[in-house]
Write a structure and sequence with these properties.
The structure holds two protein chains of two kinds. By secondary structure, chain A is mainly β. Chain A contains no helices and eleven strands. In chain B, strands 2, 4, 5, 6, 9, 10 and 11 form a seven-stranded mixed β-sheet that branches. A four-stranded antiparallel β-sheet of chain B has the order 1-3-8-7, with no helix packed on it. The radius of gyration of chain B is 13 Å and the shape is globular. Chain B starts with a strand and ends with a strand. Classes of the chains: A mainly beta, B mainly beta. Chains A and B meet through strand 5 and strand 9 of A and strand 4, strand 5, strand 9 and strand 10 of B.
């Protein structure tokens, strides 16, 4: 059974960086792209970007270009999303998701940015 | 970037009502459109993929239609468990984009 298990909640100060992990299991890790989606409190879903776990290629939403880096570790079937220069508006739940023939989501990671 | 304009942003309806939610794309996206349902504190659940294909396990009262720039999600007879927020997602080209959401509340 497909499972995406994300790392725990984080509290960061403005200007810092956060790195969220998403460990995949139950399928061939390199066969399916992984998305990152975030949701600020009381707001809608926002697509951040995508990574191909096979070759590591990425595509990011323009809004996050220069601040986001998505990587993967094929030895542990884990993808990572690092967001830098955090500001209060980055406070949100961050999800990894496989959205292809099926739709599988991690449980979400709350990142709180506060001084 | 392709913008997805979803309407209405909120609506109230009664159990048994027929409800339609619309998403318009700023340019043609063929049928690369999915619909998600999200309940408070829960992960989004995909209902429809490829504009009109019902995800396995989703009740048949949900249906999707459209191609190009205009898409609809229809719930034929609202059930109590359907009160939630609905989002469309275009996956024709990067960056993928969600609609802003439709919050469906009980009248």
């Amino acid at each position: 059974q497909v499972q995406l298990v994300q790392s725990g909640a984080e509290v960061k100060k403005p200007g810092a960086s956060v790195k969220v992990s998403c460990k995949a299991s139950g399928y061939t890790f390199t066969s399916y792209y992984m998305h990152w989606v975030r949701q600020a409190p009381g707001q809608g879903l926002e697509w951040m970007g995508i990574i191909n776990p096979s070759g590591g290629s990425t595509s990011y939403a323009q809004k996050f270009q220069g601040r986001v880096t998505m990587t993967r570790d094929t030895s542990t079937s884990t993808v990572y999303m690092e967001l830098s220069s955090l500001r209060s508006e980055d406070t949100a739940v961050y999800y990894c998701a496989r959205i292809d023939s099926s739709s599988w989501w991690g449980q979400g990671t709350l990142v709180t940015v506060s001084s | 970037d392709i913008q997805m304009t979803q309407s209405p942003s909120a609506m109230s309806a009664s159990v048994g009502d027929r409800v339609t939610i619309t998403c318009r794309a700023s340019q043609g996206i063929s049928n690369y459109l999915a619909w998600f349902q999200q309940k408070p504190g829960k992960v989004p659940k995909r209902l429809i993929y490829a504009s009109s294909s019902l995800q396995s396990g989703v009740p048949s009262r949900f249906s999707g239609s459209g191609s190009g720039t205009e898409f609809t999600l229809t719930i034929s007879s609202l059930q109590p468990e359907d009160f939630a927020t609905y989002y469309c997602l275009q996956h024709n080209s990067y960056p993928y984009t969600f609609g802003q959401g439709t919050k469906l509340e009980i009248k």
